[in-house]
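We give the entry.
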Amino acid sequence: MGFKKFLYGEIANRITLDYRNSDRLPGERALAERYHCTRTTVRTALEELQTAGKLRKLPRSGNRLLHTSFQPEPPVSLRKTRHILLIVDSNCIQDPGFMDMVAGALECAEKSGMLLTLKMVPPPQESDRLGSLDELHPGIAADGYVIASPVPAKILHLLQYCPQPCVFMGDYPESLRLMSKTHFYHCYLHENEKYETGLRRLLDLGHRRILTVEMQKQRPMIEKLYAEYGLDPKNCTNISIPFPVEIAFRSISREKLEEIVDAARRHTALVVPFGNRFGFEIYHRLLCAGFRIPDDLSVIYSSGKTDHFVPIYRISTLYSSAWDEGAACIREVVHQIQNGETRSGTRYTEYQFLDYGSLAPPKKTESR
């Protein structure tokens, strides 16, 4: 149904553009032959023009366009500038890392000659009333979509029937479940692989009492890795943090901070899978509690460009660029638009280990 609505709108746009200087329109048969579609499609497109007040049907005289100052949106094949719509949730813009990802998308779109427009996701009650994606962005003919935040189920449903390229930017479980059934492409950072790389580095240094702060989805990977190294899970502690709300948009609770600091006293190493304000609060609380890093505790973080405290405090980190992630999404959309195709798949953002000196082999005695 979504594709048919797109087709009717495309034919209607072509008619208003091609016959803007004409008094009367040709018959339905002639229009169908010109636009290589059925007469039923032409008839529905004409009805849409009439409903919009752009066409008048005259008995025994045919159809006449009503010329106004309105300039119709040219069809995709005739437009010189393509338009990409970036769908975001208003909460996400509070996260510096997310905005760095958006900055990468904006710069890449500009270099590619594309217009990139940010569209805030409407509340669920408003989304449920949407009949098409056109109602989500009236007046904008989108050639491609980048979905950069969790979106209501109704919008996900409409995207399934969207003939334009759709790329998901970032790690959202709902998008992954939907992508497997449709033509969506997914660009994101493989957090589990990145986390495992940091954990392996500590295990290879000889650490056997490791405190891991994880985001609920990483626990199976952690347990599997401990089994591979023959590590007794009882000697290690996992502290789970809700993802993504508590990490990206709020401060961690005082109780959770105290739990992490208290657990750190019984371990020789700490792995934190993010930077941002939450990561800074953990590190600052450790310093206030008297920890000497790396003498008392080896620390490794996952970080990005906006986590400025990481190089300042010289915290060893697995670094990745959200900017590159955003740019990669736009490059994928541009590729699909220029080649007239839609495709599914996954692209992982690259990362690298930066050793700033916060890692050290464990001391002979691990008790403090």
Remarks:
- Residues 2-65 form a domain with the Arc Repressor Mutant, subunit A fold (CATH 1.10.10.10).
